[in-house]
Specification:
Blueprint (H helix, E strand, L loop, with lengths): L16 H13 L3 E5 L5 H14 L5 E6 L6 H5 L9 H33 L4 E6 L6 H12 L3 E4 L9 H8 L4 E4 L6
Helix pairs in contact: 2-4, 5-6
């Protein structure tokens, strides 16, 4: 028995304007909030994660690209013969370097995101944030996801596919879906 071919939609099959508005409102209530983890050690993995998040995103979804810098180890400061001899500029550069590295990674992320949105003909709401430096980046990233109200965390695999953050967040991200993007690894 032959299967009938689908007919092109007629006016009777199209939603009414009020139904279309209700469908849009429903979609907006169900919008997904993505957090993309940004790593200065694995910028390529972070860019792949951003591209994946943009690919997943639908109308009304929001993406926050968040970098949580590692605090300058106290040992580094204590290894200086006499920190009081260091100039204010040298200390400021040392203390601000994690934030500056994060800002540089964010710029590379922005460029990759713009190219991916152009390639996919999508316009996704993306914000870029750099968190406060911390000694526990893993826990701080999960805390940032909670603050953002994220439904989905998308991260790269870490340098060489052997990062410590992906397995940690996969095991500790209660109430949050985690996507570890390993597409670019061989």
């Amino acid at each position: 028995q032959d299967c009938p071919l689908p007919q092109s939609p007629t006016r009777a099959h199209l939603p009414t304007p009020s139904l279309a508005a209700a469908m849009l409102a429903s979609r907006m209530r169900l919008a997904t909030k993505f957090v993309v983890g940004v790593s200065v050690k694995d910028v390529a993995g972070s860019q792949a994660a951003m591209k994946k998040a943009i690919g997943f995103a639908q109308m009304g979804d929001k993406i926050s690209a968040i970098h949580v810098p590692r605090m300058v180890p106290e040992m580094m400061l204590s290894s200086m013969n006499d920190p009081s001899d260091a100039s204010e500029d040298a200390l400021a550069a040392l203390l601000n370097s994690p934030t500056k590295a994060g800002a540089s990674a964010q710029q590379k992320m922005r460029e990759a995101a713009d190219a991916e949105m152009k390639r996919l003909s999508k316009d996704v709401d993306i914000e870029y944030k750099v968190g406060a430096p911390t000694s526990d980046v893993k826990t701080a990233l999960l805390a940032a996801c909670r603050v953002e109200g994220a439904n989905l965390l998308v991260i790269g695999p870490g340098l060489g596919g052997k990062g410590s953050i992906p397995p940690f967040v996969a095991g500790h991200a209660d109430g949050l879906t985690v996507c570890i993007v390993r597409d670019r690894l061989n």
